[in-house]
Amino acid sequence: MSYFCTVILLTQHNYNHYPSIINIPLTEFMVQKVGETAGKIWTALNENGKMTTKELKKVTKAKAEKDILLALGWLLREDNVVVEEVEKDVVVTLK
């Protein structure tokens, strides 16, 4: 099975017209890592309630914010979380 991450590029050249959309193939390792991080995020939210992405990065001991964002995308796709912006922070809660 192949997994892809769809990335929308908004460059200065095409921002006013159409975004460039590319699909990046994900390795099985990347998919496993994102899934594990999603599980850690779900557990943290279940135990603590609302959390910011910064708090989630600290609690899950993720190395980079992109790992948290990819995992949140997974949880959003599965309709498990609600994400909202509060005072320039991204706040996440379980549904």
Summed up:
By secondary structure, this protein is α+β, with helices and mostly antiparallel strands.
Descriptive overview:
With 95 residues, this protein is of the alpha+beta class. Helix content is 44%, strand content 29%. It has helices at 28-48, 53-60, 65-77; strands spanning 3-9, 20-26, 51-52, 81-86, 89-94. A 3-stranded antiparallel sheet has the order 3-5-4. Helix 1 (28-48) packs across helix 3 and helix 2 (53-60) packs across helix 3 (65-77). The radius of gyration is 15 Å and the shape is globular. Residues 6-15 have low confidence and may be disordered.
Question: Strands, helices and their partners?
Answer:
Blueprint (H helix, E strand, L loop, with lengths): L2 E7 L10 E7 L1 H21 L2 E2 H8 L4 H13 L3 E6 L2 E6 L1
Antiparallel strand pairs: 1-2, 3-5, 4-5
Helix pairs in contact: 1-3, 2-3
Which properties best describe this structure?
globular; 95 residues; alpha+beta; two-stranded antiparallel sheet
